Amino acid sequence: MTLPQDTAVFEKLESEVRMYCRTFPVVFERAKGAELFTEDGRAFLDFFCGAGSLNYGHNNDAIKGRLLDYLASDGVMHGLDMHTVAKRDFLARFNEVVLQPRGLDYKAQFTGPTGTDAVEAALKLVRKATGRTGLVAFTGGYHGMSRGSLAVTGGLRARRAGGVGGGDVTFVPFEDGPLGPFDSVGYLERLLADPSSGTERPAAVIVEPLQMEGGVYPASRGWLRELRAVTEKYGVLLVLDEIQSGCGRTGTFFCFEDAGIVPDVVTVSKSISGYGLPLSLTLFRRELDVWEPGEHTGTFRGNQLAFVAATAACELWQQSGFHTGLAAASERLDRFRAELAELDPALGLRGRGMVLGIDTGRSGGPERAERVQRYAFDHGLIVERCGRYDEVLKVMPPLTIDAARLDRGLAVLRDGLTA
Ligand code: PMP
């Protein structure tokens, strides 16, 4: 019999590489909505949401019902990239709810199941489509742990662990970061316009519209528009990584959409299935579909159960109650931000929609952020840290959270910051 909170087998058999279990050292058993429950019955409010994979909360009933029906009917569970009813239903609904209303005439490529697979496919595609190999990425950016994605990721620790060198990637300071604002697009234009810049014209620029792991730095709408204009002017493709910022996290389905730009390529993962099931896709302008059949394959492209969940998740966006709930919760998070600004004007407070970064960089630093994180955990709240030095508390409640639970979690954070 397993004793409650017995962790011996993890320590004995699981690699030292494990991470989150060290910050949240309990054994979770069940989860519902905004809450996680340990095997010994303690409840935790979840303001981390599987790093953005559970935007609709844990075990969302509307999605669960469809999954149970699919399982009960012996629906196809694995299909490589064969035609299935589950995939057809998803593509049709995704087009109806997400692409068409935004005027996005994209084709979709289902990649391997994790976010980095979608990024790898995007990088391969832009190189094949342009015949160029160089890429431009931004300081503070995060795109995944496989080699191609690491090459465009800023974090040196992860790059070194992956044995990734500089290669043909040029890093440009992001619009904002711990060292302050920067004229990224002006700098980029200098590189592209000057035949003596020492930089070959790249295949693409890859960017997160809101840097999450880097410390919750949203790109301004104007900056995204300028970036689109400059990349277009010089014939460079623009890849938007919406893996963590997408699927409603910032209040709109894609974070980039309120800038009014159309990226050439968009990577989507995490909350697209709506249930924590693995599913990733790379979207691109129809003309960029230069793939020959079978040039980029994978055994687990398009998890069938995830398609069923993703179709149901798209349908949530067709319900007015979902939109009013999201707007109300975002407003509450905004008011909390104003309260914190008054409480401690030295805190950096950034975010959009349902993500708030509380930056302790000029007010206590990583040690304070860690203390608040531990205080939160001790008071039944899961919240993760991010940023260059883990100095930023990344607050990401489910988009569907009710007002009482949201208030309760925010009160814990406020108390933690004042404790
Ligand atoms: N891009 C972004 C913006 C991400 O936040 C992440 C994951 N945190 C990834 C790519 C990689 O996704 P995965 O961990 O599923 O490979």
List its traits.
419 residues; alpha/beta; Aspartate Aminotransferase, domain 2; 14 helices; binds 4'-deoxy-4'-aminopyridoxal-5'-phosphate
Helix content: 25-40%
Alpha plus pi helix count: 14
What radius of gyration results from the CA coordinates?
21 Å
Oligomer: single chain
| Widest sheet: strand ordering | 4-12-11-10-7-5-6
Distance between the termini: 40 Å
Named at the architecture level, the CATH assignment of the domain at 101-289 is: 3-Layer(aba) Sandwich
For the record, what is the CATH homologous superfamily label of the domain at 101-289? Type I PLP-dependent aspartate aminotransferase-like (Major domain)
Largest sheet composition: 7 strands, mixed
Which word captures the global form? globular
Sheet-strand content, in percent, reads 15-25%
Q: How confident overall, as mean pLDDT?
A: 97
Structural class: alpha/beta
Question: What fold name stands as the CATH topology of the domain at 101-289?
Answer: Aspartate Aminotransferase, domain 2
What's the CATH class label of the domain at 101-289?
Alpha Beta
Bound molecules: 4'-deoxy-4'-aminopyridoxal-5'-phosphate
Q: In terms of per-residue confidence, which ranges show pLDDT below 50 for 5 or more consecutive residues?
A: none
The count of strands amounts to: 17
Description:
By secondary structure, the protein is α/β, with parallel strands linked by helices. The protein has a domain at 101-289: Aspartate Aminotransferase, domain 2 (3-Layer(aba) Sandwich), CATH 3.40.640.10. Helices cover 38% and strands 16% of the residues. The chain has helices at 8-13, 20-23, 49-52, 61-72, 85-99, 115-130, 147-151, 156-161, 184-193, 221-233, 304-316, 320-343, 365-378, 403-418; strands at residues 28-32, 35-38, 43-46, 106-110, 135-138, 169-172, 204-207, 210-211, 217-218, 237-241, 265-268, 281-285, 348-352, 355-359, 381-382, 384-386, 392-395. Helix 4 (61-72) packs antiparallel against helix 11 and helix 5 (85-99) packs parallel to helix 11. The chain is globular and about 60 Å long. The two termini are 40 Å apart. The model has no long low-confidence stretch (mean pLDDT 97). The protein binds 4'-deoxy-4'-aminopyridoxal-5'-phosphate (PMP). 4'-deoxy-4'-aminopyridoxal-5'-phosphate binds at residues 51, 114-116, 119, 142-144, 208, 212-213, 241, 243-244, 269.
